[in-house]
């Protein structure tokens, strides 16, 4: 019985370490902009707070003008520099032309007449 407890404990530690290693390797191999580590279900929504513009400014100071945020299950790239935003909208427009439109924007019909969507 004592050996069974030791075996179960070692198995638990092995599974935990394997999970940590897989998560760290998967995070390193992606070519995404830097950003805060997301929580499992809500992502980085907890970092936005009551005044998202101030929170995004603070995050931009820490992670740079281009950062990746996970808003729930959706990955969002935030560009906080006007120079980079101009380059993305003018020079990289083909790369962003087939982007995903969030259902909430589509439901309000803002995607038909907005410059961003």
UniProtKB/TrEMBL annotation:
GO terms of molecular function: heme binding; iron ion binding; monooxygenase activity; oxidoreductase activity, acting on paired donors, with incorporation or reduction of molecular oxygen
TM annotation in the entry: 6-25
Keyword Membrane part of the UniProt annotation: yes
PANTHER family, A to Z: CYTOCHROME P450 FAMILY 1, GERANIOL 8-HYDROXYLASE-LIKE
Full protein name: Cytochrome P450
Keyword terms, alphabetized: Membrane, Oxidoreductase, Transmembrane, Transmembrane helix
Source organism per UniProt: Solanum commersonii (Commerson's wild potato)
Family annotation (Gene3D superfamilies): Cytochrome P450 (1.10.630.10)
């Amino acid at each position: 019985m004592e050996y069974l407890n030791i075996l179960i404990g070692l198995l638990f530690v092995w599974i935990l370490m394997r999970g940590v290693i897989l998560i760290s390797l998967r995070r390193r191999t992606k070519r995404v902009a830097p950003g805060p580590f997301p929580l499992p279900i809500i992502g980085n929504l907890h970092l936005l707070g009551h005044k998202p513009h101030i929170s995004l400014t603070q995050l931009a100071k820490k992670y740079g003008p281009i950062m990746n945020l996970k808003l729930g299950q959706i990955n969002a790239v935030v560009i906080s520099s006007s120079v980079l935003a101009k380059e993305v909208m003018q020079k990289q427009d083909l790369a962003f032309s087939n982007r995903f439109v969030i259902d909430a924007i589509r439901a309000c019909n803002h995607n038909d007449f907005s410059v961003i969507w």
